[in-house]
C-alpha cells in the first residue's frame, strides 16, 4: 500500500515537472524572436553611430542614451510618476465608462444605432489638435490628462465588449428566454461571460495607447510628466535625454501590458486553454 502510494506521488511529481518544463519551453519560444530582433536593431544602431554614418547630435548611440538615462534617473523617475498616475486614473475611468456604455448599448438597438456612429466619428479627431483644446478648457492639472487617456482608450473597449456580447450562443439565449428568463438574467448568465474574452483583448490594445495619450496631454501643457521632460530636453537639443524618456515610456507601456495579460490569464484561464487546443 505504501509502495503504491509512493509510486503515485512520484508519478504526480514527474507530471508536474514535465508541465513546468513545457511551460518554460513555450515561454522561451515566445520571447526569443522579439528579444533577438531588438538586440539586432540595437547592434546595427550602435554600429551606425560609432562608424559616423549618423551624426551623434541627431541620433546618439544606444550606449550614450543608456548612460544619459542612468545619469538622469532621478529626474526621469520624478517625471514618470505623474505620467503613470494620470495613465492609471484615466484608464480606470475609461474601463468603467466603457463597460457602462457598452451595457446600455447592448440593451437598446435604437441607442446602438444612434450612438455607435458618433463614437466612430469621435475617433477621427486628431489627438494633436484635441490635446491643446482640452488643456485650454480644463487647465494644466491632472484632469485634462485623465480625459485624454479616457478618450483614447474608450472606443476599443466599447467595440470589444459589444462584439463579445454579440458572440453569445443564440441557441442558449433562445433556450433561456423560452424558460422565462428576463433580459437582465440572460445578460448576466450568457452575454456578459461571452463578452469577457473580447473585453480583455480590447483591454490589451487600449493600454498600449494610454501612456501615449498621457504624454500627448503633457506635451500640450502640464507642469510635470515625461512629456514635459521630453519637451524640455528637446529645447536644449538633448536628443539622448529625449530618447531616454521615450525608453522609460516604453517600459511603462510594456509593464502595463504585461499586467493586463497576467490579469487575463488569472481571470479567464479557459481562453488560454482553448487557444492552446485550437493551435
How large is the count of helical segments? Answer: 11
Form type: flat
User: Strand pairing plus helix content: what structural class?
Assistant: mainly alpha
Poorly predicted parts: none
Instruction: Report the oligomer.
Output: single chain
- Ends apart, CA distance between termini: 41 Å
Averaged pLDDT: 86
- Helical content (DSSP H or I, runs of 4+): over 70%
Please state roughly what percent of the residues sit in beta strands, choosing from under 5%, 5-15%, 15-25%, 25-35%, 35-45% or over 45%: under 5%
**Number of extended strands:** 0
Characterize the largest beta sheet: strand count, sense, and whether it forms a barrel.
none
Using the CA coordinates, give the radius of gyration.
24 Å
Query: Order of SSEs, N→C?
Result: HHHHHHHHHHH
Features:
279 residues, mainly alpha, 0% strand
Q: Could you describe the 3D structure shown?
A:
With 279 residues, the chain is mostly helical. Helix content is 86%, strand content 0%. Helix 2 packs across helix 10 and helix 5 crosses helix 8. The mean pLDDT is 86.
Summarize the structure.
This protein is an all-alpha fold.
